[in-house]
Design brief:
This is alpha-L-rhamnosidase. By secondary structure, this protein is an alpha+beta fold. 23% of the residues lie in helices and 30% in strands. The chain folds into five domains: 25-138, Sandwich (Immunoglobulin-like); 147-346, Jelly Rolls (Sandwich), CATH 2.60.120.260; 351-465, Galactose-binding domain-like (Jelly Rolls, Sandwich), CATH 2.60.120.260; 471-813, Glycosyltransferase, CATH 1.50.10.10; 815-921, Maltose phosphorylase, domain 3 (Sandwich). It is globular and about 85 Å long. It binds alpha-L-rhamnopyranose. Residues 501-502, 507, 511, 513-514, 615, 618, 798 line the site of alpha-L-rhamnopyranose.
Amino acid sequence: MFKKSNFKYLAYALVFLSLIISCDSKGSLESATDLTISEGFKNPIGFYDANPTFSWKLPVSESNKSQSAYHIVAASKPDLLPDNADLWDSEKQTSEQSTWITYGGKPLESRQKVYWQVKYWNQNGDSSKWSETNHFELGLLNNSDWKAKWIGLDTAKDSIRGRENVIIHKPQYLRKGFELSSDVTSARLYITSKGVFDVSINGENVSDDAMSPGFTTYDKRIETLTYDVTNLIESGQNTIGVELASGWHSGRLLWGTTPWDNTISPKVLAQLEMTMSDGSKEIIVSDVSWKGMTNGPLQFAEIYDGEIYNANLEMPNWTTNNFDDKNWTTVEVGAIDANVKLEPKRHTTVKDKIKLVPQDITSNDGVAVFDLKQNMVGVPLVNVPMKKGDTLKIRFAEMLSPDGTFYTKNYRSAHSTDYYIAAKDGDIEYQPKFTFHGFRFVELSGFDTSETPTKDWVTGIVQYSDFEDNGTFTSSHDKLNQLQSNIVWGLRGNFLDIPTDCPQRNERLGWTGDAQVFGPTSMFNADVYKFWASWLQSVREAQLDDGAIPWTVPDSRGNKIGSSGWGDVGTIIPWKIYMRTGDVGFLEDNFEMMKNWVGYHQKKSNKHISNMMSFSDWLQPFPENGDTRGDTSSKLIGTAFYAHSAKLTAKVAKTLGKTEEQAKYEELYKTVAKAFENKFFDETGKVKEVAETQTSYLLALAFDLLSDDKKANAKKFLLKKIAEADNHLRTGFLGTPLLSEVLDETGEIDLMYKLLFNETYPSWFYSINQGATTIWERWNSYSKEEGFNPMNMNSLNHYAYGAIGQWMYERIAGIAPLEAGYKIIKIAPQPNEPLTSASASLSTPYGKVSSSWKIKDGKFFLEVVIPPNTTAKVIIPADRSEVLEMDGKTFEDNSNMKLINTGKDVFELEVQPGTYTFKSKLK
Ligand code: RAM
């Protein structure tokens, strides 16, 4: 018989069961945050990858130490989620992985929209609520998706030549009217150009993007943009209008010998796809029905040289229905080239990011100079009173010469000047569109001189690829903080679609060596993973058949040779960026390129000693031979990078589980290292046969190329070289980033601090003492005593020496990845005089990590934040005979942390996620 008491138990059991079930389906933990796909895209449209990866973060809470499982669902409609995922149901996966999880569902196609959610289980097996629904929509993934044709006017036919004999293409205005018979429920504009474009529909700008589609290896790949233009399309009559200029594709680039035909006139490719209210589809494409002309207001536009805008030629309403284009010309039409891939842009577009207002004005004789007090990159926005018919001339300079005139010699042949011709009396507003400048000073002339210039006449519009800051660094030392600011401004100035050497002269190219040294620092300061992943695709595309990676990417030299230390960007950046993201897919993408680059090293060496061409230790100070390439032997440099690239390739092979290749490249590294040691180092560990320089020792030690018995001596010789230089660096582009690494690893922190805090030439603070607000190309680009460096290759915005930023945040503040992607974080600050405090924070793939220390009365205070789903090794400098305090109490092992090592003068702890404060006594 069923007893009442049994019934009671059954009822309890049911309640309990339902609790478990509801707990599991609804979840008790807060849902995951920061959902992104692939290299950090949030709800993108026109996405490039049909096989994306998924990432999320666990919210910071006492309950979330780590993830034990996840569940991802993806569907074609939001209301199918989470229970009826028709595209992918990952099911519950037991895994700590919360980043870069590859999509495993039905194949996805161009234009497809995907909705997705995720939930996770924490370390105790408690589940979270489902996350908010996120989504992505694919762009046109294949050339065959395009029905449109390349269109444009033949602007090359007059063959007017400009500076350095380059064909000037007058900017084009292209338009088309079309009629729709019903309402639109959804509209996408797919668009790109050979050149740079700006598009409007019915008088409205489609986006605030600048310089689209950006700079890629145009002979291999042109990126396309996707815009949701649903709200711009009207039922009935519509008009689309495109402005088109030369940009990187058909404009002037330093050498002008590109692998793509840069003499052809700019062209546009546009495809407007619409879904109508009755469910039918309409498509408008660029084709022979479009019309164009070149007699619009923009008469000239070149990246290096600037713009000429004649307001008298403005055509009001030309992108609306209310315009008559009967005098316009029918466009020429070209087919899509099967060998040039059209792919959705895989990183962010350039945008207006920051506005700077002038701090000072001087004016004299109708010429006004505005000082923004910050060297920047972008364009000016001018609001100026003018007289009809007058020409406003806008000049730029990064610095003034001592006599107050504009220093423009370092722009070399870049004219870098904009002109505006007024059509009426009164205030005009103008912002150049298809050019950019590197400047701190703006000079105006040609304005209405009856008015007194005021600061609001000029705004500095800072433009760069649309990314956000990712980390912060600050300290008790003003000049170190200025250095950090200069590094960040160097980054902003040189991340305008590609990583450039400089942003102002007739160059602005993707110099591989500069990128190689600055990559890690950029990853700390800004959210630039997608920026790098995109550029690395260009590097792969630019790689030549023999494995050579061109000097600049995209290649604008076309001389088919690589330079050691520059082409090694192909091995160094994949590894260093992988360490900061943990995205194995990035390594998979780049592994072939890495092997091919090592193969090129092999071809360029004889008995493992390199003969590769090299820019060497570029711009090393005090070169004995007066050469920009410095004194370090190019053979020594080439051989060192050969070994190093082989070693990195072995590491990547290991991570990818390719054991045979791992063994092969490890062996190669050892062989080349041995050859290097035998050739360039004597028995005592001293450099032989070639010039003995700081950089030769730095390369040998940083890349681990010497046998153990010689290492210690080599270090002594390095210290001797530094001492002989009065404790100053004597390093150029390649050696400088290795100084901090080697001195730190060999325990010479005091010396590294000395070098970093040196005030005299050559040093980082030297340029700051001369007024630098960005990193300079040369240690002595300018000095108060001697004025500008006499060389005209003298950029005042060149990020290479900003590579020291990595050491600042990894070692001064102390945040470094111990395992790829900061899954294990090393917090190991290295306090030293003259600093009394420093702190850094960083947004890692798992969340925010920070380390903040100060010294007071001989005590060391450290506050750390460790994000969920990571662990940290925290190393606290201390007099070990005194106690360590944690959150105000004497430290004892607990569930959040354990003392794992009692090394010399430090407490070393293994720490779980959370926020903690420590206090130790310093020795
Ligand atoms: C200069 C560039 C760049 C450097 C090369 C070798 O023209 O500015 O910084 O990498 O030369």
